[in-house]
Amino acid sequence: MTRSEFISQEIDRLKRKIATYQLMVAEYESELGLQADLNPQGSSTTATGKGKDAIGSDPMSLIQGLIFFNKSQPEAAKLFLEMVGYPLKTDVLLAAVEKGGVKVGGKTPAAKKQNFYTILYRSADVGLAEKDTWGLVTWAGVTKKTADEPKPDEEAKENGNSKKEAAADPQQPQK
Length: 175
Prior knowledge:
By secondary structure, the chain is mainly alpha-helical. 47% of the residues lie in helices and 6% in strands. The chain has two domains: 1-56; 58-170, no CATH class. The chain contains seven helices and three strands. The chain starts with a helix and ends in a 7-residue tail after the last helix.
């Protein structure tokens, strides 16, 4: 790959990020009841390459029929996030996946949401952008905790401190 090809790819990547952030701002503005311009640059395409009218203010309008038929829950969520082009709340993703033809287990809505949240958390393609908001791990601001990261209890054991030792020694600060 030549330097000019690399620079062209970086420019395209950054333009997609800008478009994603513009869509996020527009969504927040619409939640506040402000007049939202989905693409202030005047271009008629979004981060996903679709026209701005394709998304509008309702990402659910992108779901037509059983477009996620024969897909797993994480695959369907990934495809929907790719279509929308910006992070979404768990409830919106869950509704989109179910509307697209994927069944999510759970007897109550809360149980369904918890099951779906757990499946997304375990997925390699989807990560948390913020609390209860999911995006693709390739997007800026979306993090994915890996199994390699030590948990707080493991860190304490590695340092020679356990919860029992900390509780037994009144001189050590409690967490």
